[in-house]
């Protein structure tokens, strides 16, 4: 079995490495001398951890401790974020031995010591999933930009991400039954993100999932606290902001490219979302 060491992937002066991998197919069984977090953005497959099977899809986190063996069997092209870090990344050298044996021996995570051992698979659904995705995207950008203080920023972000994961572990360990409504939503969110620029309706999602438009509408409100329409708007505004900041496209073409033929509506929603017009944001680049 292949054994990966920190030297294979992690820079000695960083103690953490973050990768976003697309079009991934499979991974043979291996183990490693560092801690690994895997977040599934899209696709589906099976993860084997110490010989135990876990089916994974969008919203799932895999927490892989030092020395654990695992491999991926992917059903379709998979996209995921991979966070690798050494046991002492979040603490001082004196705690490294305890951290390598039991992550919850660290003073930082004493509140989660009732977990005893991390659960390999943690499922994020609803609003919690979107919050984790935003945090992971921020971590990836911080790691790649490497601006002054990025190590401290990553240490703080990683602590926050782990606390979110451990809280969800606690809930998951108390009740292993996840409502079908939560497992229904991740593929629908991916469908929205792939088709947001066109006319997309609840009827379209119903065809994708075989649930009724009413049921899907209620699921959005119950799980996220906002409506289907509001989610589509969030996706469109996020992409519009990116294009305003990263391209020289005209505001009108950006408006059309994210699904708004009505320029007035686009300007109103943009200012409502970001507190300024697209032109004002562009001047701040």
TrEMBL record:
Coiled-coil residue windows: none
UniProt cross-references to InterPro entries, sorted A to Z: AraC-bd (IPR003313), Homeodomain-like_sf (IPR009057), HTH-like (IPR037923), HTH_AraC (IPR018060), HTH_AraC-typ_CS (IPR018062), RmlC-like_jellyroll (IPR014710), Tscrpt_reg_AraC-type_HTH (IPR020449)
Record key words, sorted: DNA-binding, Transcription, Transcription regulation
SUPFAM superfamilies: Homeodomain-like, Regulatory protein AraC
Chain ranges of the HTH araC/xylS-type domain: 186-284
UniProt-recorded Gene Ontology molecular function terms: DNA-binding transcription factor activity; sequence-specific DNA binding
A Pfam family this chain is assigned to: HTH_18
Stored Gene3D superfamilies: Homeodomain-like, Jelly Rolls
Cross-referenced PANTHER family: ARAC-FAMILY TRANSCRIPTIONAL REGULATOR, HTH-TYPE TRANSCRIPTIONAL ACTIVATOR RHAS
Name assigned to this protein: YesN/AraC family two-component response regulator
Native source species: Paenibacillus rhizosphaerae
Phylogenetic placement of the source organism: Bacteria, Bacillati, Bacillota, Bacilli, Bacillales
């Amino acid at each position: 079995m292949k054994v990966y060491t920190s030297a294979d992937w992690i820079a000695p002066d960083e103690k953490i490495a973050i990768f976003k991998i697309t079009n991934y197919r499979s991974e043979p069984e291996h183990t490693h001398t560092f801690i690994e977090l895997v977040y599934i953005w899209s696709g589906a497959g099976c993860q084997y951890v110490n010989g135990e099977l876990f089916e994974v899809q969008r919203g799932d986190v895999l927490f892989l401790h030092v020395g654990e063996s695992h491999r991926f069997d992917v059903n379709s092209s998979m996209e995921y974020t991979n966070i690798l870090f050494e046991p002492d990344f979040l603490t001082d050298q004196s705690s490294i031995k305890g951290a390598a044996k039991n992550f919850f021996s660290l003073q930082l995570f004493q509140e989660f010591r009732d977990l005893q051992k991390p659960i390999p698979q943690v499922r994020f659904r609803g609003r919690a999933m979107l919050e984790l995705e935003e945090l992971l995207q921020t971590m990836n950008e911080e790691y790649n930009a490497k601006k002054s203080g990025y190590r401290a920023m990553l240490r703080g972000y990683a602590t926050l991400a782990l606390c979110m994961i451990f809280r969800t572990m606690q809930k998951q360990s108390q009740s292993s039954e996840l409502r079908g409504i939560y497992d229904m939503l991740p593929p629908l969110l991916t469908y929205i993100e792939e088709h947001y620029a066109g006319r997309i309706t609840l009827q379209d999602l119903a065809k994708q999932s075989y649930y009724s438009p009413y049921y899907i509408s209620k699921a959005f409100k119950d799980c996220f606290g906002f409506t289907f329409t509001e989610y589509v708007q969030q996706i469109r505004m996020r992409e519009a902001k990116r294009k305003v900041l990263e391209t020289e496209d005209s505001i009108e073409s950006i408006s059309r490219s994210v699904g708004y033929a009505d320029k007035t509506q686009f300007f109103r929603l943009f200012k409502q979302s970001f507190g300024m017009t697209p032109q004002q944001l562009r001047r701040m680049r």
